[in-house]
Amino acid sequence: MCAVSLTKPVAVVALGGALGASARFLLSELWPGIWTVLLINVIGSLLLGYLAETVGPDRLWRLFLGVGVLGGFTTFSTFAVDAVREDAVTATLYVVATLIPALLAARLGMLVGHRHRLARKAAA
Length: 124
Prior knowledge:
There is one protein chain. By secondary structure, the protein is mainly α. The protein is 89% helix and 0% strand. The protein has five helices and no strands. The longest helix is centred in the last third of the chain and has 36 residues. The mean pLDDT is 92.
């Protein structure tokens, strides 16, 4: 793929990433702590699951929303650093309380998105 054909995808990912990271930053400033990061990651997983099932074939929308906005909003690196900074009990609770709900939220988002897509097809 040549550099010219990457210009628009890179731009939409950058714009989406700036929006998502800014939202995460603001939430973390308003409610500092590991539990805010947990909620951000679970909500982001739910939204990404929904997006995976509902956004059509438009590659730029997928890149903007999925890679950009939600990639910037959620944060595995902050989660990892927060976990290793905590005592063993809190870190274990934090990891379990993040990963299991995030996986379940992604699946729930996919199920809701799938049903929404089917309902739109039926109405059309």
